[in-house]
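Researcher: Please predict.
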Amino acid sequence: MAVFLAILGLAAVLILARRFFPTRRTDSRRSADADRDDALRILRLRLADGAISPDEFERLRRIVEAPTIDGNR
């Protein structure tokens, strides 16, 4: 009986810990969005400076905005 209560108590602690300390998945998602925004900002600056052509800008923009294979976007 004591073993059962110990396991039940441990399960309750784990559930509460997950509830009050969620995983950082949302942080990595925000980070990926920020990285994409930074890349687009750099592309716009390079286009404005004449470092890349409008066609090159569009090609690179499509690559940056494409959904990722691992589903992080």
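Model: The helical segments are 2-20, 25-49, 54-65.
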